[in-house]
TrEMBL record:
Keyword field: Ribonucleoprotein, Ribosomal protein, RNA-binding, rRNA-binding
GO molecular function: small ribosomal subunit rRNA binding; structural constituent of ribosome
UniProt protein name: Small ribosomal subunit protein bS6
InterPro entries listed in its UniProt record: Ribosomal_bS6 (IPR000529), Ribosomal_bS6_sf (IPR035980), Ribosomal_S6_plastid/chlpt (IPR020814), Transl_elong_EF1B/ribsomal_bS6 (IPR014717)
An annotated GO cellular component: cytosolic small ribosomal subunit
PANTHER family in alphabetical order: MITOCHONDRIAL 28S RIBOSOMAL PROTEIN S6, SMALL RIBOSOMAL SUBUNIT PROTEIN BS6M
Composition bias type Basic and acidic residues, residue spans: 114-137
Organism (species): Campylobacter geochelonis
Coiled-coil blocks: none
Database matches in Gene3D superfamilies: 3.30.70.60
SUPFAM superfamilies, A to Z: Ribosomal protein S6 (SSF54995)
Single GO biological process annotation from the record: translation
Ranges for region Disordered: 112-137
Length: 137
């Protein structure tokens, strides 16, 4: 089984019960087709970068799951027919570093930038130090 995430945006005009029904629908499609839902993260209502179907805002959700590759096509097919989901994005995590990142994200842990892990940051040279180096050369 592969590691995936699906981010989808639901219409902001829906009630809380209707939004919960849409999330349960996505989870049900995953579990019925042999997948395992690891976590669901609600990101809340946010302003869209541009209007989609005349909506300026949307309710964001991210579902982390493990599934066979054939499930993704079925999931995409079901989401496309759902008029209340205005946008979605499916991401596959393949190599070891991506899977490690998936495990952290599915638990709600934010990723730190890779540079911080590799080397400590050095402070920028002060302007007077930089001038003195230039005059010595």
């Amino acid at each position: 089984m592969k590691h995936y995430e699906v981010l989808f945006i639901v219409k902001p005009t829906l009630t809380e019960d209707e939004v919960k029904t849409k999330v349960d629908f996505v989870k049900e499609v995953i579990t019925k087709n042999g997948g395992e839902v690891v976590s669901v993260i609600e990101m809340g209502t946010r302003k869209l970068a541009y209007s989609i179907k005349k909506y300026e805002r949307g309710v964001y959700f991210v579902v982390y799951f493990m599934a066979p590759p054939a499930l993704v096509t079925e999931l995409v097919r079901n989401i496309r027919y759902n008029e209340d989901i205005i946008r979605f994005l499916t991401v596959k995590y393949e190599n070891k570093t991506e899977v490690a990142a998936w495990e952290k994200l599915s638990k709600g842990i934010k990723l730190s930038p890779a540079r911080k892990e590799r080397e400590p940051r050095r402070p920028a040279p002060k302007p007077e130090e930089q001038e003195s180096k230039e005059t010595q050369e």
